[in-house]
Amino acid sequence: xxxxxxxxxxxxxxxxxxxxxxxTLEITLLxxxxxxxxxxxxxxxxxxxxxxxxxxxxxxxxxIRGTPALVQIVWIYYCLPIxxxxxxxxxxxxxxxxxxxxxxxxxxxxxxxxxxVDKGQxxxxxxxxxxxxxxxxxxxxxxxxxxxxxxxINEFATLLKLTTLGSAIAVYELLHESNNLIASIYRPxxxxxxxxxxxxxxxxxxxxxxxxxxxxxxxxE
Length: 221
Known about the structure:
Blueprint: H1 14-45, H2 51-65, H3 69-84, H4 90-116, H5 120-127, H6 132-162, H7 174-185, H8 188-220
């Protein structure tokens, strides 16, 4: 007996998907901003001349990249209250955890972007009296940013998909809202299929934008 698809039953529940999508985008945007704030100093610090700074940044990047995002989320949500006595809400936990997680990858993007600029640019800046940070801000980063934009967009798309991990700590993002809906209407195939379509519609424009930018940068070389 074939399965009878009934997508029409989802129409009356569209506010649930909208609410979940708004929460998903909020978490993604805020965690992306946090990742940028963390990623720049971490990426620059990994190449610093002072070994304590280089060591701290390297340990942060490698530990975060070497552990699953879900473990990081669960650790912050359940272990942080025991260690520090600080209980974060589910949404705040997701923003902090994903911000820290993405920050390690953003740091590598910054580091690779800076490394792509010819070393002679630093020497030229130094010859006219600029310090390291001044030359980085005024000369190096403006040149490196064009190579960093595509991977930044890819990381943003990855963050969008990682928000589904919020269901593990009952954050009402798209996946958790969908699971609750399934418990009410018992139509998992329709709900999960529609959820996949929604995620594709949200994520693909960023992936497409990244591909277009990469092609444009290659033509400009």
